[in-house]
From TrEMBL:
Compartment(s) of residence: Cell outer membrane
Organism per entry: Filimonas zeae
Keyword Signal: no
Protein name: SusC/RagA family TonB-linked outer membrane protein
Domain of life: Bacteria
UniProt domain TonB-dependent receptor plug: residue ranges: 231-330
InterPro entries in the record: CarboxyPept-like_regulatory (IPR008969), Plug_dom (IPR012910), Plug_dom_sf (IPR037066), TonB-dep_OMP_SusC/RagA (IPR023996), TonB-dep_OMP_SusC/RagA_CS (IPR023997), TonB-dep_rcpt-like (IPR039426)
Length: 1123
């Protein structure tokens, strides 16, 4: 059988098919309302003919035709030569190249303006005479990092001086001879030069300059031009993440608008911060979703040297594509990748000294004994003195520390200094076909615990981590790219056999006068019936070794389908992650003794209080997990009408499967699965009017089939006012004015409680009574958990934002107002009366919270003098979450209600001061216990004449700050740079408990005393509001230590978080001899000083009594070498 075809007809059919396919895609995107912004091109067409014209005449005409401000100093212009050229419909970029070629000036796009500066240290040559017609014609395309064609880019043969502009599709043709240098450049992008070596096709990928209007921002499952963004998002400069600390979470709070973070411990390996995006809006998990290179992972242990970008997505428009995982915000981290060019090697080393930011100060032994006598006398006026004068005198003299110790447990247990050190070496480079980035990192930190040199093991705190990152990109074909990535870390940590909480609790409870640290004969002290010896717990309990390892791997294949449909591309990604944890505990106890007195010969008489173990014990624990992740996406990016209309679209499918590798039961062995579809479409008209729609349709295995999947849409609109024609007269004053707004619904599937709550559980229960005799008990079956048709939480979010850039780009301001209504929060019913017969109240999507607030960022840059630059940055966030429904029964009085109050609101008694006299007590509401002058007087809220639970009302602000802010200046002068960063929190308080508020609280009598114990009520004192009310012994004989606002203290602080000074050597002969491009020396101070009215312990540790490993301050010195 034979077939004949008409070639022309076939070509027409193929062309028609392509046109129809494009029209279908455009129709689909327009019908779904999916819109995106196009950056206002500085590739605007210019028509200009000049002959021997001064640049002082040319630049104003260019500004008039394009509306782009060109900033320069007239003194520079007097040094330039006249120009002659004729351009018809050329790009602004091309004309600027013609104006500055072979001139002592250069141009750069800064904050939307063209800035003209003098070239530095360069010898200018006269224009080279034109050569004969080149033998070769070179062609290709110029695109950005996302593969978008750059229309109007300049392609310059630097040897012949011939320049051409790229077409709408980014294509070009230019003549060249072997050995010619071809430069590709475009306003807002870094120029790229390639040597011609007979390769007739030369494609160029240009990298956007930081801060240019062509900047590309990372968004959910992709990238967008920054000018086109509608969603609320913030990013952190990667250099701000390079703090001298192991945990990356500690670098975020106060550094970026919208993020609230608090650090509750400084213990190496356990020193991460709690991070919340725009506060807490739920009773359940509020942790944000973290994606590293597109995969859900943790970021605590990433080496900051390997981070290319760090982005925070905050509103529904930015997070809706993540569906049931996006309600708490999203953190996107991308690791570094290689760039084509000569290999670059970077080496960084630093060494730091660490100290506690603040440790509690306890009263000395004499003060303790005298205060105990006073408290005992207050409780027992007619009793004998608790501690004799002889005991107090002996303690003060210190002649017999075995029987009359006076121990400062903090000084005896902890060193003054520790150390940390960091090292990283990375290399990158490659060609147009293959690029690579390789990195190896090391971090080591020692704790501040003391050790016993006689022990045959090491109980010191030590944390060591090794990081590696390897990213490889291969261009298999012109339209096919493959990215490989493998990274991970291994940590090894050593700790005492008892945990930090136990050790610090013992130090808080053990008074200074009971036992010494160690008896003079070497025996370990321990009083019978008393709290454990803190030094014994620290140095004699053995050791625990923890090993963690994490391996991340992924492969991504991207195929450009532009040969079928212009602007179309597809990619697929697969990743496998493996996590393992291994712990070995070698713990023990030692014999302890207590010296009761001395015999006639003056020798100590001991009684043994504990028989220890002879050997170190052994215990092992393991855990781990594995995760598989797949993702496939189709992307469309196309501009029409000479760039006036830009449309993008994305459709994506993804799924993940995480398995507990050491599951101990059937439920734990079931993988945690996630599956979904995401879609986005954007539209922009002349970078003025922006619109965007995002969709997430996904679900989790946790819920029943009927409630497993949900649709999460978001909608956004933007208006770049500064790009309007009517705004041009103000363009010199305001370079950018943009408004944006969004609304959407996102979900949270991390609702807590048990998995598979839609399935009832049945348990066997003993002890059912039957009949009149209580002895008639039977066993039976009972409903353990009731099946409820639960699903994810739903968060309806509204965001209104404004962006402003003024003062010729020196001042930038971004402000966002947000509101969120979180419904369907997973709660256990608290409104079921007992007579229903339900033993375990069921759970359900019952809670509701409303959160609102504002966050913002402001930046100011100024060149104060030649080579002297100044920058001031600041950010803030304020939020307040109000409970709308909590699934509990209503209280009898309105002041007891949780509904309508702040999430996390504290409740307790309201203090009115201290009782001043017996008459004052008689005329006040009745309080529990033996009440005397100097005790706390409480407000009788319900007026029934007695103080009880019905008088508990709202007190304080809560433990999570409502306001977090940060600001800092920086200066640079020639090779010098200096900067500082301040972090602050406000609208937060500390609720004291235990020894934090109650002297002698251990078993009603024992307990260490803070050094501020002198700030107390005494009969002869005049302080109406001392720290401590009347002391008693035991301290449980009155209601002074009931939950009340008396024990709530202001938790606000301002911390100097970072101070840095550095000097960079560059362009030095000795550097070239060593093969270096530059060499930097720097010194950093971290957590340098804290300003707060709260002085007992580091204020950021929060509620309680401060019995935690304190935060650390670090002074670090280092070098940074770039080869």
């Amino acid at each position: 059988m034979h077939f004949t075809t008409n070639a022309a007809a076939l070509r027409r059919a193929e062309l028609l098919a392509k046109i129809l396919l494009v029209m279908k895609m455009i129709a689909f995107l327009m019908l779904t309302g999916l819109l995106q912004v196009s950056a206002r091109g500085l590739s605007q067409k210019v028509t200009l003919s000049v002959k021997n014209a001064s640049l002082l005449q040319v630049f104003p005409e260019l500004s008039r035709q394009t509306g782009v401000s060109i900033l320069y100093k007239e003194a520079f212009m007097k040094e330039t030569a006249p120009v002659t050229f004729q351009v018809t419909g050329g790009s602004l970029q091309m004309v600027l190249e013609l104006c500055t070629r072979n001139q002592p000036i250069q141009y750069k796009l800064e904050n939307g303006n063209i800035v003209i500066r003098r070239k530095v240290a360069e010898v200018f040559q006269a224009a080279m005479p034109a050569k004969d017609t080149p033998r070769f014609t070179v062609s290709g395309k110029v695109v950005d990092e996302q593969g978008t064609p750059l229309s109007g880019a300049t392609v310059l043969n630097k040897n012949t001086g011939k320049a051409v502009a790229t077409r709408d599709d980014g294509g070009y043709r230019v003549g060249a001879d072997i050995g010619d240098s071809i430069q590709f450049s475009f306003v807002g992008y870094l120029p790229h030069t390639v040597l011609f070596k007979e390769q007739l096709v030369m494609n160029a990928v240009l990298e956007a300059e930081s801060g240019s209007m062509k900047d590309v921002a990372v968004v959910g499952f992709g990238r967008q031009k920054r000018i086109s963004l509608i969603g609320a998002q913030s990013s952190i400069r990667t250099e701000d993440l390079k703090i001298p600390a192991a945990n990356l979470t500690n670098a975020i709070a106060g550094r970026v608008a919208g993020v609230i973070g608090v650090q509750r411990s400084g213990e190496p390996g356990f020193d991460g911060s709690q991070i919340y995006i725009r506060g807490i809006s739920t009773f359940t998990s509020s942790s944000p979703l973290v994606l590293v290179d597109g995969v859900q992972r943790t970021f605590n242990n990433i080496d900051p040297e390997d981070i290319a970008s760090f982005t925070i997505l905050k509103d529904a428009s930015a997070t809706a594509v993540y569906g049931v995982r996006g309600a708490n915000g999203v953190i996107l981290i991308e690791t570094k990748r290689g760039k084509a060019g000569t290999p670059q090697v970077n080496l960084q080393l630093n060494q730091g000294i660490t100290q506690f930011t603040r440790v509690p100060e306890f009263a000395d032994g004499v003060t303790y004994l005298k205060t105990a006598n006073e408290a005992y006398r207050n409780s027992n006026p007619n009793a004998m003195q608790l501690y004799s004068d002889e005991k107090i005198k002996a303690t003060a003299e210190g002649t017999d520390p075995d029987l009359h110790p006076n121990v400062n447990w903090i000084k005896e247990m902890f060193n003054k200094h520790g150390y940390n050190r960091r090292a990283n070496v990375n290399a990158s480079g490659g060609s147009e076909r293959a690029t690579y980035y390789l990195s190896v990192g090391y971090y080591n930190e020692t704790g501040l615990y003391k050790t016993d040199e006689l022990a045959q093991y090491n109980s010191a705190i030590r944390f060591t981590r090794y990081n590696f990152t390897s990213n490889l990109s291969l261009k298999l074909f012109n339209n096919t790219k493959v990215d490989f990535g493998a990274s991970g870390w291994i940590s090894d940590a050593n700790y005492p056999g008892r945990g930090a909480q136990d050790i610090w609790n013992a130090a808080y409870i053990m008074p200074p006068t009971i036992i010494p640290v160690r008896y003079s004969n070497g025996l370990i002290p321990q009083a019978r019936g008393e709290e454990a010896n803190p030094y014994d717990m620290l140095t004699q309990s053995g050791y625990i070794n923890n090993t963690h390892s994490q391996l991340w791997s992924n492969i991504r294949v991207t195929q450009d389908m532009g040969n079928l449909v212009k602007g179309l591309s597809v990619y697929g990604m697969f990743s496998f992650d493996n996590y393992n944890y291994h712990q070995i505990s070698r713990t023990k106890t030692v014999d302890t003794w207590f010296a009761t007195n001395r015999d006639a010969d003056g020798k100590l008489v001991f009684e043994q209080t504990r028989v220890g173990t002879s050997y170190l014990g052994y215990n092992r624990a393991n855990s781990g997990s594995r995760q598989f992740y797949q993702e496939v996406a189709v992307n469309y990016n196309r501009s029409f009408g000479n760039g006036a209309h830009e449309v993008t679209g994305m459709v994506l499918y993804n799924q993940s499967d995480a398995t507990d590798a050491f599951a101990a039961d059937f439920i734990s062995a079931i993988p945690n699965r996630y599956q979904g579809i995401a879609a986005r479409a954007t539209y922009g008209y002349k970078s003025r009017y922006l619109a965007e729609v995002n969709l997430g349709y996904n679900g989790s295995e946790t819920f029943s089939k009927e409630s497993r999947f949900g649709l999460f849409p978001s909608y956004g609109l933007g208006w770049v006012v500064s790009n309007e024609e009517f705004f041009r007269p103000l363009a010199s004053s305001v370079q950018l004015l943009k408004f944006r707004g969004s609304y959407g619904i996102v979900g949270n599937s991390s609702i807590g409680g048990r998995r598979f709550a839609y399935i009832s559980t049945v348990t066997q229960r003993d002890g059912y009574s039957f009949g009149r005799s209580s002895g008639n008990t039977y066993s039976g079956l009972d409903i353990g958990d009731y099946a409820v048709d639960v699903t994810w939480e739903r968060a309806a979010k509204v965001n209104l934002g404004m962006e402003l850039r003024s003062l010729r780009g020196a001042l930038s301001l971004t402000v966002d107002f947000f509101m969120e209504n979180r419904t369907g929060i997973f709660r256990q019913r608290g409104d079921l009366p007992n007579y229903t017969g339900i033993l375990n109240a069921p759970f359900g999507n019952l809670g509701a919270v409303r959160n609102r607030g504002v966050d913002g960022t402001v930046t100011y840059n100024k060149q104060l003098a030649r080579n002297l630059n100044f920058e001031m940055r600041g950010n803030f966030v304020w939020n307040r979450a109000i409970v709308k429904q909590d699934a509990n029964a209503l209280w009898p009085y309105p002041w007891q209600q949780v509904i309508g109050r702040r999430l996390g609101q504290r409740f307790g008694l309201t203090s009115l001061g201290l009782f001043e006299s017996k008459e004052d007590i008689a005329n006040s509401a009745t309080q529990t216990g033996t009440i005397q002058p100097g005790d706390i007087k409480y407000k009788d809220l319900n007026g029934d004449g007695k103080i009880d639970n019905y008088d508990n009302g709202p007190i304080g602000s809560g433990s999570i700050p409502e306001i977090v802010y940060g600001f800092g200046p920086s200066f640079s002068w020639k090779g010098w740079s200096a900067g500082a960063w301040f972090k602050g929190i406000s609208n937060v308080d500390i609720f004291l408990n235990g020894e934090g508020m109650q002297p002698f609280q251990k078993e009603g009598s024992r307990g260490n005393l803070f050094s501020n114990i002198n700030d107390r009520w005494t009969p002869e004192g005049n302080n109406k509001r001392p720290w401590y009310p009347r002391l008693t012994y035991p301290s449980t004989s009155n209601s002074n230590y009931s939950s009340s606002d008396w024990w709530i203290k202001n938790g606000a602080f301002l911390r100097i978080q970072n101070v840095e000074l550095s000097y960079t050597f560059s362009k030095k002969p000795w550097l070239r001899k060593l093969g270096m491009n530059n060499f930097r020396l720097y010194a950093i101070g971290y957590n340098v000083a804290t300003f707060s009215s709260f002085k007992l312990w580091d204020v950021e540790l929060g509620d309680g009594k401060g019995a935690q490993y304190p935060l650390l301050k670090t002074f670090s010195f280092g070098i940074d070498c770039r080869f």
